[in-house]
């Protein structure tokens, strides 16, 4: 009996979403803020740390689940 869903190869969207998942992971925010200090974006991130952290967490979660879907890992 053949499995219900067999994909010959993963979708390129899965790889793009995996990259977005890696970049938007909130744990990387602690390393990004010092790198962009002195810029307008760095000042905004420093002042509004919690909303940015929450937003990145949501983006990371959605892109992680979507990348696993497109790469047929779940």
In short:
The protein has 74 residues and is mainly alpha-helical. The chain has 4 helices and no strands.
- What is the alpha-carbon Rg in Å? 17 Å
Class derived from helix and strand content: mainly alpha
Overall pLDDT confidence: 81
Number of H- or I-type helical stretches: 4
Number of strands: 0
Strand/helix succession:
HHHH
Beta-strand percent range:
under 5%
Helix content range = 55-70%
* C-alpha termini separation: 20 Å
Main sheet, how many strands, which sense, barrel? none
Shape, per Cα inertia axes = elongated
Which consecutive residue ranges, at least 5 long each, have pLDDT under 50? none
Explain what the structure shows.
The protein is mainly alpha-helical and 74 residues long. Helix content is 66%, strand content 0%. It is built from four helices and no strands. Helix 1 packs antiparallel against helix 4. The relative contact order is 0.21. The model has no long low-confidence stretch (mean pLDDT 81).
Task: Considering the chains and any ligands shown, give keywords for the structure.
74 residues, mainly alpha, 4 helices
């Amino acid at each position: 009996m053949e499995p219900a869903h067999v994909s010959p190869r993963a979708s390129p969207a899965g790889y793009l979403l995996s990259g977005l998942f890696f970049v938007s992971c909130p744990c990387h925010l602690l390393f990004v803020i010092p790198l962009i200090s002195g810029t307008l974006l760095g000042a905004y991130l420093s002042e509004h740390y919690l909303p940015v952290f929450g937003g990145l967490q949501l983006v990371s979660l959605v892109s992680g689940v979507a990348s696993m879907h497109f790469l047929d890992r779940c």
